[in-house]
C-alpha cells in the first residue's frame, strides 16, 4: 500500500511515534494507503516550522505573496485530474464532481492572490489636534485548519487562500478518513515558490492531533469545518486561550417550493440539493417544503426522477450516486431512516442499503413524506441521501417552518414572484439564500452560517479580514508636551 507521512517544513516526514493507520476506499471497502498517525509531538514540530515559515512569508511584499498564489493556482489546474482521482479513492464521491472541484479551487488561490496587495488601512480624521492616526492590517501568525472528509481540497481552499494572502502560515489537520488528497497537494507549494514551512499538514485523529493543534499556544486562530458538535468542542477549547475561531458547521437547510414555481426546475433543484454528493454536504436541502396545492404531483415527479438515479462506481461517468464515505456515517444514515419510520414518516422511495454493493456503504436515495417539523428527521442533520418533505399552506407558514431549526446555513426558494423572492431572502435566517437555483458557490461570494451553523465567513472579500488583526497607530505631529496626568 501507498504510505503518506506528515508534510512539515517542505518535506514528507514519518510520525515521531512511528504509528500509522489505514485509509479505505469507500467504493470497494478495501484499504489502499497508510497515513501517519500524528500526536502532540508532531503538531509541535509542524507549528515550529510554521512559525519560521510565516516570518519568511510575511517578509515578502504583498505583491510577491500574491504572485506565488497565482503560480499555485496554475499548478493546481495542471494537477487537477490527479488530485480528483485521489479524492474519489479516499472519499467515494463522484469523479465528475471532484474533478469539477479540483479544477475550480484554483480560482480561490487566484482570487486571493489578486487581493493580497489590496489590503489597505485607513487614515482616520481624528478629533485630536497634533496627531496623525492611521490603521494597518497585520497577519495573525500561524493558523490551525481542521478540514472535513466530504470535500477536503475545496473546503481547505476556502480557508487557506485568504489566510495566505493575509500573510499567515498554516498547519492543516485533515479528516482521518480523507487525508491523502491534502498530502498530495502539499508539494505544489514549493513548486510555486512558497518558503518551506508556510503550509504544513499533520494527519491523525481528533483527540490525538486535532486537540493539540487547537490548544497549541503559538497557533493564533483555528478555522474549522465539521459538525456542530465538533465545532462546539473546538470553540470551547479555543475560548480558554481567548483564541479566535472560524466555524463552518452543519445545516438542515429548507428548500421551499411555491405553487407558482417552474416545477420541473424545482424538482431538479430538490434532487441536486439532497442527492448530489450522496447528501454528504453541509448545504444539503434536506428539508423540502412544498406548498400543499402542488405537494402530491411534485412528490410523484420527484420520486420518478430520483428513482432513476444510477448508483455505482464513482469513477464511472454514468453514476449519479456514490457510496457513503465512512462506515460510521453509513451506520448513522441508516439509523436516521429507522428513526423517521418510528416517528411515523412515510417512506416513498428507498429506505435502506443497496444490496450487493461492492463496499457495503451504499444507501438508496430515500424520500419521506408525512413529516412535521418537530420530528428528529426534520431537526437533526443526517448528512446522507435522505429527504424530509414537509407541506405548508402559505408564505408565512413556509418562513416559520424554515426558520424553526437550530441551524441557519442555507435555504432555497422556488418562485416566479420576485417580490416574494426578495421578502424571503430577507426573512430566512440563513447565511446563503438561493432563488430558483441551489448549491451554487463562488470564490467571490461570502459563505457561512447563522445560529449553530457557524461563526465567520469564508470566500469573498469579507473573508480575508478573518485572518488579519487591525492596529491603530498614533503619531504626534507637534512638539508641545501634554499634561501626562490627563488622557489625550
From TrEMBL:
Query: In this record, what's one Pfam family?
Result: Aldedh
Give the keywords, sorted. Answer: Oxidation, Oxidoreductase
Where would I find the Aldehyde dehydrogenase domain in this sequence?
19-473
Listed GO molecular functions?
A: oxidoreductase activity, acting on the aldehyde or oxo group of donors, NAD or NADP as acceptor
Q: Where is the active site?
A: 248
Q: Report the sequence similarity comment from the record.
A: Belongs to the aldehyde dehydrogenase family.
Name of the protein this chain belongs to: Carnitine dehydratase
Q: Which organism is it from?
A: Pararhodobacter aggregans
Amino acid at each position: 500500500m501507498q504510505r503518506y507521512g506528515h508534510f512539515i517544513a517542505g518535506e514528507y516526514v514519518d510520525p515521531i511515534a512511528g504509528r500509522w493507520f489505514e485509509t479505505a476506499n469507500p467504493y470497494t471497502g478495501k484499504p489502499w494507503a497508510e497515513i501517519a498517525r500524528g500526536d502532540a509531538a508532531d503538531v509541535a514540530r509542524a507549528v515550529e516550522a510554521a512559525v519560521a515559515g510565516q516570518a519568511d512569508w510575511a517578509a515578502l511584499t504583498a505583491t510577491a505573496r500574491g504572485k506565488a498564489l497565482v503560480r499555485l493556482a496554475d499548478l493546481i489546474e495542471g494537477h487537477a485530474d490527479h488530485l480528483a482521482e485521489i479524492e474519489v479513492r479516499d472519499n467515494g464521491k463522484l469523479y465528475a464532481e471532484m474533478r469539477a472541484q479540483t479544477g475550480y479551487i484554483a480560482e480561490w488561490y487566484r482570487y486571493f492572490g489578486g487581493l493580497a496587495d489590496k489590503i489597505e488601512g485607513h487614515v482616520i480624521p481624528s478629533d485630536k489636534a497634533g496627531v496623525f492616526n492611521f490603521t494597518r492590517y497585520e497577519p495573525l501568525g500561524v493558523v490551525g485548519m481542521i478540514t472535513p472528509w466530504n470535500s477536503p481540497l475545496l473546503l481547505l481552499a476556502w480557508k487557506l487562500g485568504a489566510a495566505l494572502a493575509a500573510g499567515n502560515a498554516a498547519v492543516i489537520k485533515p479528516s482521518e478518513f480523507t487525508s491523502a488528497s491534502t498530502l498530495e497537494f502539499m508539494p505544489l507549494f514549493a513548486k510555486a515558490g512558497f518558503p518551506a514551512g508556510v503550509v504544513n499538514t499533520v494527519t491523525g485523529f481528533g483527540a490525538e492531533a486535532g486537540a493539540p493543534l487547537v490548544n497549541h499556544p503559538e497557533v493564533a486562530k483555528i478555522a474549522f469545518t465539521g459538525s456542530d458538535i465538533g465545532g462546539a468542542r473546538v470553540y470551547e477549547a479555543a475560548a480558554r486561550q481567548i483564541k479566535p475561531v472560524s466555524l463552518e458547521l452543519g445545516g438542515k437547510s429548507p428548500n421551499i417550493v411555491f405553487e407558482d414555481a417552474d416545477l420541473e426546475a424545482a424538482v431538479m433543484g430538490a434532487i441536486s440539493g439532497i442527492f448530489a454528493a450522496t447528501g454528504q454536504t453541509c448545504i444539503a436541502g434536506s428539508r423540502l417544503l412544498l406548498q400543499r396545492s402542488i405537494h402530491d404531483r411534485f412528490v410523484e415527479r420527484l420520486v420518478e426522477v430520483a428513482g432513476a438515479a444510477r448508483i455505482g462506481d464513482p469513477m464511472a461517468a454514468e453514476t449519479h450516486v456514490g457510496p457513503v464515505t465512512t462506515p460510521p456515517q453509513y451506520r448513522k444514515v441508516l439509523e436516521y431512516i429507522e428513526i423517521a419510520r418510528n416517528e411515523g414518516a412515510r417512506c416513498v422511495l428507498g429506505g435502506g442499503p443497496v444490496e450487493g454493493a461492492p463496499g457495503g456503504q451504499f444507501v438508496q436515495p430515500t424520500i419521506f413524506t408525512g413529516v412535521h417539523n418537530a420530528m428528529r428527521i426534520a431537526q437533526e442533520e443526517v448528512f446522507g441521501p435522505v429527504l424530509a418533505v414537509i407541506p405548508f399552506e402559505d408564505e408565512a407558514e413556509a418562513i416559520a417552518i424554515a426558520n424553526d431549526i437550530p441551524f441557519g446555513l442555507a435555504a432555497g426558494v422556488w418562485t416566479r414572484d420576485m417580490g416574494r423572492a426578495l421578502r424571503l431572502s430577507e426573512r430566512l435566517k440563513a447565511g446563503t439564500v438561493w432563488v430558483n437555483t441551489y448549491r451554487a458557490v463562488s470564490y467571490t461570494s461570502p459563505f457561512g452560517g447563522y445560529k449553530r451553523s457557524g461563526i465567520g465567513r469564508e470566500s469573498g472579500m469579507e473573508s480575508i479580514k478573518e485572518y488579519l488583526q487591525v492596529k491603530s497607530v498614533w503619531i504626534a505631529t507637534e512638539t508641545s508636551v501634554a499634561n501626562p496626568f490627563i488622557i489625550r
